[in-house]
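Morning. Coffee machine broken again, so started the prediction first thing and wrote up yesterday's gels while waiting. Chain of 176 residues, entered below exactly as on the submission form.
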Amino acid sequence: MKFNLQSFNNSWYNPGSSVKIGCWMLVSRIFFETFFPWPSSLKRRLLTAFGADIGAGVVIKPRVQIKYPWFLKAGMNTWIGERVWIDNLGMVTLGENSILSQGVYLCTGNHNFKKESFDLMVGPITIGNSVWIGAMSVVGPGVTAADGCVVSLGSVVKSNLTESGIYSGNPAVKIR
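Came back before lunch.
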């Protein structure tokens, strides 16, 4: 397949005003993407001010990237580990008491490589309650991780995960 990137057009995609995005980028750099351990309570308030739905007790470690907080919902007592990247061009929902370990990447966007114009595609990610996504794992667009499942270290999740399943590998497969 050959791409003609001159024909790429994602004008249909509008995540928010450039002023809102610019303000968020500044706040994110100062309070989220830094080594400095700002309190999670402050980070929760900032996310909420930018339109996120954040539950009580959410813990947000240093060096976290969140593309657009207005596309983020996190349930109570969820942990977001150091160097997590929530690349949420679309909605990301994190259930209660769930864990995104260090270096997890949640990616809601992709491109249609079958089209010459390489069209943008966006799909939500839903992480259920009491889910553990292990360090350095990747979760792709359109994935739902059902309640109680575990994803082991460095796995790549491209399809839905069943309740209480344990998954490992690239692509992640159910091992228990």
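The domain at 39-174 is CATH 2.160.10.10 (UDP N-Acetylglucosamine Acyltransferase; domain 1). Going to sketch it on the whiteboard this afternoon.
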